[in-house]
Amino acid sequence: MMPKRPFWLVMGTVVGAGSTLWVERRVRRTVQDAANRLQPDVLAAELGRSARHMAETASERVRDAVSTGRIEMREHEERLWQQLAERRVAPERAEATKSPSHLGN
Questions:
Q1: How far is it, in rounded angstroms, from Cα 81 to Cα 78?
Q2: CA torsion through residues 49, 52, 56, 61, sign
Q3: What's the number of domains the chain is made of?
């Protein structure tokens, strides 16, 4: 039978060494990927893609804003015309509701 302390010492060393190697590979891979992305030609291509994407989304946002503005403008104009019509009708109704004694006869 193997003593407990040496067994756990060996197990801890193996797990520690294995996890250290795994983390080291992972970090190296991450650093290498970042270095590859930061190369001038890759940066230029990514910048171009980003600029294209921003231009496309900006044009869509502008189109949506103009469309929404036109709709709001039409609705506001309709409300203004309706208010104007109500103002014109209100004096006519007031004149029609006046009794003949108020006409100054």
A1: 5
A2: positive
A3: 1
- 105 residues of the chain, pLDDT tens digit each: 568 888 899 999 999 999 999 999 999 999 998 888 888 887 788 888 888 888 888 888 899 999 999 999 999 999 999 999 888 887 777 676 665 555 554
3-state SS record for 65-82: HHHHHHHHHHHHHHHHHH
Q: Residue 93 has which token pair?
A: 């109704």
Structure token pair of residue 80 = 């203004």
Please indicate, yes or no, if residue 25 is contained in any of the structural domains. Answer: no
Q: Is residue 5 part of a domain?
A: no
Determine the pLDDT at residue 105: 47
The verdict on residue 28 lying in a domain is no
What residue has token string 């036109």?
70
Collapsed DSSP state (helix, strand, coil) of residue 25: helix
H helices, E strands: number in the chain: 2, 0
Report the alpha-carbon distance of residue 20 to residue 12 in Å, rounded: 12
